[in-house]
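EAL domain-containing protein, Nitrincola iocasae. Tokens?
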Amino acid sequence: AAKAAGRNCLRIFDEAMREKIQLRVRLASDLRTALKAEQLSVHYQPIIDLFSGQVIKAEALLRWEHPELGQVSPEVFIPIAEETGAIHEIGNWVFREAARVAMQWNHQELTEDSVLRRISVNRSPRQFFTREGCDDWLAHLHDQGIPGEVLGVEITEGLLLDDRPDVMRQLTAFRSAGIAISLDDFGTGYSALSYLKKFDIDYLKIDRSFVQDIVSTEGSRAIVESIASMAVRLGMQVIAEGVEEPAQAEVLTAIGCRLAQGYLYARPMPEQAFMAFAAAEIETPTLR
Ligand code: C2E
Ligand code: MG
Ligand code: MG
Ligand code: MG
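Tokens:
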């Protein structure tokens, strides 16, 4: 009986594996036509200045509405797009969309003050490892006459680990064009802090996992506070990711973390909704 049960387990395991693989193969294939079929869209999530209550930045986040499966999470399809190489075409499209929206946003807001608002775009390591490198994005800005100052690029720690000269060159080219560099999901990766002085980074995005228990856990609070003060001394700004509760925003304000992104303020949303939202002022904790 034990042997039979063992066989059963194996069969169930096999089947689950097969289904998983089949889904991946299907998504990889469907993803090739998703852009042309207009199933992809870019949503924009506001980034708030907790001191002024204004939306000063935003992050572009890709969405896929599959005709049969509905919304597929980027956590699922981005790794597939990276594997198949589809990330290049899709990623370039996201960047162009973000650049267009960033120009519109700044035209709308420029009457009030002269501070430029940036939209940042995630860029996978694979997008750096091509012959064209950063040229695809920079050429687009050049052609359209769009200043880099309205855009940002979000990278993860893993990209910096190998210390590749071509990566360094591309990041430098982005920055020379006025594009800000954000280090995404900070604290979850390798946390070899030495690269922070080698590369010019403008923003550290503190991962949601630290922000989550910043109110209840002294350790997380200490980590975020240390990251914030280190960042300031290195000339970087800090963005807290995944702020969901007012109490978290209060702690962040108290420890000097000025910028925040999360469901408490707004979920990622389509262009039109984002434009309307960005014009409003948001209630934030008052400084004590
Ligand atoms: P990310 O760059 O770290 O983006 C932040 C993620 O946190 C987004 O997930 C966002 O919707 C989510 N988020 C924001 N606020 C909250 C909150 O308060 N609570 C919780 N629980 N989550 C929050 P999303 O949109 O599912 O994207 C997942 C990841 O997919 C992104 O993580 C990024 O790594 C990748 N991704 C998305 N769009 C692109 C893209 O255009 N290109 C590339 N290369 N990667 C992308
Ligand atoms: Mg990001
Ligand atoms: Mg992130
Ligand atoms: Mg992430």
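The longest strand covers residues 54-66.
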